[in-house]
Amino acid sequence: xxxxxxxxxxxxxxxxxxxxxxxxxxxxxxxxxxxxxxxxxxxxxxxxxxxxxxxxxxxxxxxxxxxxxxxxxxxxxxxxxxxxxxxxxxxxxxxxxxxxxxxxxxxxxxxxxxxxxxxxxxxxxxxxxxxxxxxxxxxxxxxxxxxxxxxxxxxxxxxxxxxxxxxxxxxxxxxxxxxxxxxxxxxxxxxxxxxxxxxxxxxxxxxxxxxxxxxxxxxxxxxxxxxxxxxxxxxxxxxxxxxxxxxxxxxxxxxxxxxxxxxxxxxxxxxxxxxxxxxxxxxxxxxxxxxxxxxxxxxxxxxxxxxxxxxxxxxxxxxxxxxxxxxxxxxxxxxxxxxxxxxxxxxxxxxxxxxxxxxxxxxxxxxxxxxxxxxxxxxxxxxxxxxxxxxxxxxxxxxxxxxxxxxxxxxxxxxxxxxxxxxxxxxxxxxxxxxxxxxxxxxxxxxxxxxxxxxxxxxxxxxxxxxxxxxxxxxxxxxxxxxxxxxxxxxxxxxxxxxxxxxxxxxxxxxxxxxxxxxxxxxxxxx
Length: 527
Fold this sequence. Notes:
Keywords: Chaperone, Cytoplasm, Guanine-nucleotide releasing factor. Belongs to the synembryn family. It is a single chain. Helix 4 runs parallel beside helix 6 (111-127), helix 9 packs across helix 10 (176-185) and helix 9 (158-174) runs parallel beside helix 12. The protein is built from 26 helices and seven strands. The chain is elongated. By secondary structure, the protein is mainly α. Strands 3-5-4 form a three-stranded antiparallel beta sheet. A two-stranded antiparallel sheet has the order 1-2. Strands 6-7 form a two-stranded antiparallel sheet.
């Protein structure tokens, strides 16, 4: 009934009536994602009628509800045949300011039309293979990049940037050819990195270092959404970028990694949005060549070092909270390097472990990233070793029992998911410089058996990678307990009582004769 009424007005009414009836339809079906199959033909005809209205050049106030209804209808894959023609795609491109390269973005009144047109294109391209092919023929990716360049540094059009980026993400997700085009022909890597810089309002203090204002306000919801879409699009563009062939590529990836470091050190408007932002940053960092991840840590300046020492010295004894904050800050410094970003990654990993579900999608990317960083960068590995595997003091509990990061990771070493189990074990193995004796000290033989069997190291030894030869230092508590530690379980066990001590002489003689008889039977030849 709604479609019939809307179709009648669209075919016969004037702009004001069309605006009213379509706005009512949009308000009523805003949250509709499943449609009645009996009304398919009516919805197809309504789509055709809306395009005929858009061609007429109706006022902006009428264009917006037309596009809103088209966006709602385009959620249904079955009715997209009349929508996905070159003529209709061109209409949407024109309304989205993607049609003419010299079109400017000066009329604020047109912004809602641009945003709704981009939303329609997102739905149509995602749901229709015909539309995807037309996108290639119309060179939509290039048009989207041009629109991004027009609004790159203009904060008041975040919605346009957000849905432009979302459409780029959808295109690059569905077509590997577009990923290559974005990377090389359209210079998508620097363009999208600049979009992130703009969203984060980054101020560079050095080539790969940005100023971080920890007391500043969180990102706005619009800036956060825009950054998330840019991160997702960049992930697709860089998905095959493990190897760097040119110095210019290396520089660009380092700039991107520095931007991602900044991303990890800021927060979004809510805790959930911050986690989503950091999750996408982790995914993208996994595509960065490991040699370029050195920019995640940076040396402290002389001023920062002096300030840190002075802060701890000057705080009076009654300023407990302030001292705790200062000590926490100093805990993120290792060997004169600022480790804040690595600490954020470690905290993010622990939160994902604590969630207890979706480990393969949510946990393995950050574990893989920390493993590769530790393998390639000595300072990162040593900092993580201090945080995850500090010197052992209490060995009365099994390695998998407890609430420390080490306990949680050891529990994952026997997880039912093979991928999760392998990457957790690999991470701890790398922190131990791939030395079997060091790994067993922290995990016990039983928990590490799967990894050692897969690597052919059940008899001991070390992995194939080279690490510095600095030795681990054992605590006095561990040295004293070491002779009594069960190598299988990895913890100190109380000595078992000797059953012979409580036997009488007659019982001992009886047990000895039983043993003699059993040995005699074993030594007799079989008949």
